[in-house]
Every structure is written in structure tokens, then in C-alpha cells.
Amino acid sequence: MKKRLTRKELLPFIALLPPCLIVMEACGGANYWSRQFSARGHQVKLISPQYVKPFVKTNKTDANDAEAICEAALRPSMYFVPAKTIEQQDIQSLHRVRERLMGGRVALINQVRGLLMEYGIVVAKGAWNIRRELPLILEDAENELTLLGRETLLALYNELVELDKRIKCFDEKINIIF
Predict the structure, then answer these.
(1) In the β-sheet with 80-81, what is the strand arrangement from edge to edge?
(2) Rounded to an integer, what distance in angstroms lies between the CA atom of residue 178 and that of residue 175?
(3) pLDDT band at residue 62 using 50, 70 and 90 as cut-offs
(4) 0.90 cut: is pTM over it?
(5) pLDDT (mean) for 98-110
């Protein structure tokens, strides 16, 4: 079946179809749509994009992608990805946000270490070294830090403390689940 639908039109259209097999590429939103279609009596299968790509014949368009998904789905040895439950998505979301915060903390620490090096102050790698050393550096009147430099580094230290708190909050939520 070929029918062009907007996102808003999709669910009402699917709800009117007799129960059938719906195959989609496993991408952003696929788990949501899988739950919606399954709730309306359809069998839903998801295919990883890497298994669909070899079946795309020409340029990437929605129609070409749909044709490639259909072609891939007909292969007897095709591997389908299980759809995530809402609870699984919640857990994945926690991990993704925590991972982003961790990456931000690493970037912040590297920036602090780089800025300190510009003033001739070297701090060993590791978050614990910055947490321990930076307050001492900010209080040391003998180093070359200016008032503006101290204020800037203090703001970054406060940001680090806040990031640590946010990461700890996510760690606690994850530990409660597991």
C-alpha cells in the first residue's frame, strides 16, 4: 500500500486498518509507534537501520526507505529488533542523560585544567584532583591569578559541584531501579 500521511494522520489511519504486520526501521520514535500500533491490534516488527540500508536503491527519500524496509522484511533471515517498553525507555533515558552529564563534566574539568595551565598552574588529571586543588588554588594569593581569573575559575568550580550533584541524583535513581 502506498499512501502519503502526515504524522497527525498516521494513528487514525492505522486504527482503521484490519490487524496486519507493520514493519518499521528502528529509529527515533519507533518504540512509541510500535506501542501505539500494537495497542490497536497490529503486529509490529522493527529492523535496525544497518539492515535496511543495503536495500535502498537510489536516493534517500521516505518512499525509497519504505520500499527498502519492505524488501528487507521479506528476507527469511532478517533480524528484527525488539521494541522497548515504556519502562525500558525510562531507564535508557536516565542512562543517556547521565552519560551526557558525565561528558560535560569531563569537558569542564579539561577546560579548567587548560585555563590553569595558561597561568602556569598544573593540576594532575582526574576529577578528584580538580575538586581538591582548585579551592586551594583560588585561595592562594601567591599565584598569578587575577581577580577576574579567580572569579571565572570559581564559577567553573561551582558548575562542577552542581554537575556532581546532578550526576549523583541520576546515580541514585539508577541504583533504585537496579
Answers:
(1) 21-25, 43-47, 80-81
(2) 5
(3) confident
(4) no
(5) 98
